Amino acid sequence: MLTRLALYTALGLVLSAVGATLDTWQFWSVVGLFWASEHLTRQELWDQITEEVARMRADNNNKDTP
After folding, report:
1. pTM of the prediction?
2. I need a labelling partner for 14 at 20 to 30 A (CA). Which of 39, 50, 55, 61 fits?
């Protein structure tokens, strides 16, 4: 959580340094891309965990059958 807070703070500082304020489309475009990247990362992690759990269940079922 602290890392995410630091990243968003750095993003805000960079956008402020280049002159993109809350009322510009550039600001919201960059924030939207940053949010989309984070969302996709979470989705990929969820998919990876789901696949790993399914693989572990399949391995466990194969060990139980003689």
Report:
1. 0.64
2. 39
Structure tokens at 41: 């990362």
Range from 2-6, 36-40, 45-49 that averages highest in pLDDT: 45-49
The CB density around residue 38, as the number of other CB atoms within 10 Å, is: 13
Residue 47, Cα to own-chain centre: how many angstroms? 12
> What is the domain partition of the chain in residue ranges?
2-64
56 close to 66: Cβ distance less than 8 angstroms: no
Q: Is the Cβ–Cβ distance between 14 and 6 less than 8 Å? A: no
- Please state the length of the chain: 66
pLDDT (0 to 100) of residue 31: 87
Coil, helix or strand for 18? coil
Written as six digits, the tokens of 26 are 């550039």
